[in-house]
């Protein structure tokens, strides 16, 4: 009987940890972090991804993940595939890149 409660508790703990691991940032928070020199302006980082090579920008988010501010971009390429890119906002380094089929 005790085992039946263990699975839901473990699942709930995993979901809670994932939710707490990332936090969306507001525009005001982003501006303040740029002003303080903590992160690179979005325009500077976007310049790394020319539309001719990466396609049309569909979506972008700024999140704090495990203490690091991350810009997340979603591009629609000319071939119709979507590219998702995560960039460290402190230094502009690509953390992850995924092409959806």
Describe this structure as you would to a colleague.
- The chain is α+β, with helices and mostly antiparallel strands.
- It has one domain (22-100): Nuclear Transport Factor 2, Chain: A (Roll).
- The protein is 38% helix and 36% strand.
- The chain has four helices and five strands.
- A five-stranded antiparallel beta sheet has the order 1-2-3-4-5.
- A hairpin with a 5-residue loop joins strand 3 (68-76) and strand 4.
Name the poorly predicted regions. 1-20
Please give the domain count: 1
Distance between the termini: 44 Å
Provide the helix percentage.
25-40%
Compute the gyration radius: what is it? Answer: 17 Å
Give the class-level CATH name.
Answer: Alpha Beta
The major pleated sheet works out as: 5 strands, antiparallel
Mean pLDDT metric: 83
Q: Strand fraction band?
A: 35-45%
By secondary-structure content and strand pairing, the structural class works out as alpha+beta
Q: How many strands appear in the DSSP assignment?
A: 5
Tell me the CATH architecture.
Answer: Roll
SSE succession: HEHHHEEEE
Overall 3D shape: globular
Named CATH topology: Nuclear Transport Factor 2, Chain: A
Please work out how many helical segments DSSP would assign. 4
Describe the secondary-structure layout.
Blueprint: H1 2-21, E1 22-24, H2 27-35, H3 42-46, H4 51-54, E2 56-65, E3 68-76, E4 82-88, E5 94-100
In brief:
With 101 residues, this protein is α+β, with helices and mostly antiparallel strands. It is 38% helix and 36% strand.
Give a quick set of tags describing it.
globular; Nuclear Transport Factor 2, Chain: A; 4 helices; 101 residues; alpha+beta; disordered N terminus
């Amino acid at each position: 009987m005790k085992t039946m409660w263990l699975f839901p508790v473990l699942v709930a703990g995993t979901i809670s940890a994932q939710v707490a691991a990332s936090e969306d940032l507001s525009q005001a928070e982003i501006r303040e972090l740029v002003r303080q020199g903590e992160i690179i302006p979005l325009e500077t980082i976007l310049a790394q991804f020319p539309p001719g090579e990466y396609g049309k920008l569909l979506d972008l988010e700024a999140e704090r993940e495990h203490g690091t501010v991350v810009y997340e971009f979603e591009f629609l390429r000319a071939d119709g595939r979507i590219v998702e890119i995560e960039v460290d906002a402190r230094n502009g380094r690509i953390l992850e890149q995924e092409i959806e089929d």
